[in-house]
Specification:
By secondary structure, this protein is an alpha+beta fold. It contains 12 helices and 38 strands. The protein folds into 3 domains: 319 residues, Distorted Sandwich (Beta-galactosidase, Chain A, domain 5); 304 residues, TIM Barrel (Alpha-Beta Barrel), CATH 3.20.20; 86 residues, Sandwich (Immunoglobulin-like), CATH 2.60.40.1180. Bound molecules: (2R,3S,4R,5S)-2-(hydroxymethyl)piperidine-3,4,5-triol.
Length: 732
């Protein structure tokens, strides 16, 4: 049983395969958190709580004569506000009389088999009936009809606990929510560090590890998107934690908009983590009888380092977050014309690129930005989703037919959420854009953002794209989003509801994504936001892959993909071989190195292959043949990072291992070759210790145990950014 209740001591215990999570209801109904960590069957952790009277940490009324208990010091599952807990709150509710108050006490719980869903929001799902179980604990405010239902989904085999909250107004006057986090967890003690993933456009998800000090540190986005700058995935770890040892906890939000995860180390050195939607520019009117649902967050614990934690998330995303059938299907090798032509193309020019690509083995041709409306530059076209016949005479048919005649399938770029002021759409519906009355708008790439909270906007967009997908043979869509939100104001909502817009916008995006992906399941969707500006588990519920970054430089990509891999599996990362010198950095790397770096993602090309020399074309042919040989291992294998964070400066190494240990593919790229350098020796993972392995193209044989313990010593490297792939297969 993964969820246990012991009525005599009011203990609620959740077990995953390797972790235990425990809480208790005390005699006054406070839901106290007791433990989250390594699995501990039969434990009753209540003894861990020692309540002392602490100065300036007040006591609830029940304890005024026995000043041992303070909400300010006791660990809790979900905290109210203005009731004596001065740490970061999970909930901030304002009642109709203006009072800020929520004194939340246990009112009951229920358990049920299977996963829970959240209306309009992405949520982890089951593949078979016994994949997960759900616990719902109801907390009730002592003086109002405000209720909070805490959801816990236990995916036992995946070592994941999902959490979310439902806030219910059971009374007859409005309650304003000024903060509604998905989850709160208090760690009684511990000397923790925070590993978070920050970045910028063209350098997303860079790991940064910092000690927690006695204050609040937070990882947050106020950009209306999960953002290039701060990913909604964070890790709390022990100072000694490494890739393959030490304790760590992950917190991953299924949310693609403004988010905030706060880490507070309080005056007793306990650590509180509160995670969910950002409370900035958020005020939700919870009317009588209404319910508000927070996004879901995935908790996971590993006692054996970051790699194990990553495996929990990779498996969870593969099996219980991504719904697309393409997760379990071979992805086509694609060519995208963006870096080859930008918006300057014609049918003939595209077919020219496609012909060469087809000849070399590419399977899918993607036409990027510039095919619609009057789109010749960034100033026009967005919103007008009809074909630009100046570039594509006769419409899409001649191009699609030409592509199909080459034996390839066809894909299209769209940017649904945006509009240019010069477009016909904007002229017809200026009120559909997010703008603040009587103020000039803030531009991003000279475009405005559509009000995705409006059903008429979503219906217009759905009809445009559904018509394209119905009328043409389109097997792939790249859904882009090229600016952050500002002027977040809906011309449809009344003044008092404008504080709901940051949340409603994302729900609108999810609604459109739901309709398109569910009604056209045969289409492979790729997410994108100026590269990886919306690379999060919320989007992965709808699309199985996301363009990882607009930086296609192989050496920069090493860092971006390495950071991304802490939370997200490689099969979700869009990754292409592009031209050199690279368009973002001017750096030159070999075609071989570029291939090695693009292969762990959803492999493809983004250049005009006609421009390659004939020997380079031969190399691409071989590269593609090699990729197709190892593709199933890459897509379905277990991914291991082979270098520690501090080694990433000099080299990056990773491995894919077949789940049955029958083969592994080791990849190494040296970022900095040095004279007389120490040799790189790596221990491989996921082999069968008793088996013998052959190294491809050699006579060499190794025992699995040897490669995992003694490891493998790489030769001395020479030149700029050399790379090496080693494929070992089991021979006995
Ligand atoms: C940003 C994307 O990340 C690029 O790949 C490309 O699609 C451009 N937008 C097109 O505008």
């Amino acid at each position: 049983m993964s969820i246990l209740y012991s009525p005599e001591n009011r203990l609620l215990t959740l077990h995953t395969r390797h972790s235990t999570y425990q809480m208790c209801v005390d005699e006054y109904g406070f839901l106290r958190h007791l433990y989250y960590g390594e699995r501990a069957d039969g434990a009753d952790f209540r003894y861990l709580l020692r309540d002392y009277d602490r100065g300036f940490s007040g006591n609830p009324a029940e304890f005024r004569n026995n000043r041992g208990v303070s909400l300010d010091t006791t660990p809790q599952e979900y905290t109210g506000f203005n009731a004596g807990d001065y740490r970061v709150p999970a909930l901030c509710a304002v009642h109709a009389d203006g009072s800020y108050a929520a004194d939340l006490r246990y009112a009951g719980h229920e358990t049920r088999p299977g996963a829970y869903s959240l209306p309009g929001l992405p949520a982890a799902f089951d593949r078979s009936p016994d994949d997960s179980a759900t616990l719902v604990v109801t907390l009730r405010d002592t003086a109002s009809a405000l209720q909070v239902r805490l959801y816990y989904g236990v995916f036992e085999e995946r070592d994941i606990i999902t959490r979310a909250a439902e806030i219910v107004n059971g009374g007859d006057s409005v309650i304003y929510l000024e903060k509604a986090a998905s989850a709160c967890i208090d760690f009684l003690s511990g000397n923790w560090e925070l590993l978070h993933f920050h970045g910028r456009h063209c350098m997303e998800r860079q790991p940064q590890r910092v000690p927690l000090s006695n204050n609040v540190q937070s990882v947050e986005s106020r950009r209306g998107m999960s953002s290039h700058h701060h990913n909604p995935f964070t890790i709390l770890c022990a100072p000694e934690t490494r890739e393959y040892s030490g304790e760590c906890y992950g917190f991953m939000l299924l949310w693609s908009g403004n988010h905030k995860t706060e880490f507070e180390k309080d005056y007793l050195n306990s650590v509180r983590v509160v995670t969910g939607i950002h409370d900035s520019q958020f005020r939700w009117n919870l009317g009588a009888g209404e319910h508000f649902f927070t996004p879901q967050v995935l908790f996971s614990y590993s006692a054996s380092g970051f790699s194990t934690l990553s495996h929990h998330y990779h498996d969870m995303i593969r099996w219980h977050i991504c719904r697309s059938q393409y997760v379990h299907k071979r992805r086509p090798v694609l060519i995208n014309n963006w870096e080859a032509t930008f918006m300057n193309f014609t049918t003939e020019r595209l077919l020219d690129i496609a012909r060469q690509a087809a000849e070399l083995g590419v399977e899918l041709f993607v036409m990027d930005d510039g095919w619609f409306g009057r789109r010749d530059n960034e100033d026009d076209g967005l919103g007008d989703w009809f074909v630009n016949e100046n570039k594509l005479p006769g419409g899409l048919n001649p191009l699609i037919q030409g592509i199909k005649d080459l034996g390839m399938s066809f894909g299209l770029w769209i940017e649904p959420e945006m509009v240019n002021e010069a477009s016909d759409l904007y002229k017809a519906h200026p009120e559909w854009a997010l703008t603040v009355p009587n103020r000039p708008p803030m531009y991003g790439r000279n475009q405005l953002v559509l009000d995705m909270s409006r059903k008429d906007v979503r219906d217009y967009l759905y009809n445009c794209f559904a018509e394209l997908l119905r009328n043409y043979d389109i097997s792939y869509i790249k859904w882009d989003m090229n600016r952050c939100l500002a002027d977040v104001y809906s011309h449809e909502l009344p003044a008092e509801q404008q504080g709901e817009m940051t949340y409603r916008y994302v729900l609108g995006v999810y609604d459109l994504a739901e309709r398109l992906t569910q009604n056209f399941p045969h289409v492979l969707f790729e997410g994108c936001a100026g590269g990886g500006g919306r690379f999060d588990a919320g989007m992965l519920y709808y699309v199985p892959q996301i363009w990882c970054s607009d930086d296609t430089d192989a050496i920069e990509r090493l860092d971006i993909q390495h950071g991304t891999s802490f939370g997200y599996p490689p099969f979700t990362m869009g990754s292409h071989v592009s031209a050199c010198p690279n368009q973002q950095t001017g750096r030159t790397t070999s075609l071989y190195t570029r291939g090695v770096v693009a292969m762990p993602g959803t492999f493809g090309y983004e250049l005009d292959l006609n421009r390659l020399s004939s020997s380079e074309k031969d190399e691409v042919r071989l590269q593609m043949a090699y990729y197709k040989k190892v593709q199933s291992l890459i897509q379905n294998g277990v991914y291991y990072r082979l270098n520690e964070l501090e080694e990433q400066e000099r080299y990056s190494a990773w491995e894919f291992a077949a789940p049955d240990g029958s083969e592994i593919l080791v990849n190494l790229v040296v970022k900095r070759v040095q004279a007389n350098a120490p040799l790189i020796r790596l221990r491989f993972k996921g082999l069968s210790p008793e088996a013998t392995y052959a190294l491809e193209d050699t006579e060499s044989r190794y025992s699995g145990a040897a490669l995992m313990t003694g490891g493998y010593t790489f030769p001395m490297f020479w030149g700029d950014y050399p790379a090496l792939q080693l494929h070992f297969t089991r021979v006995d």
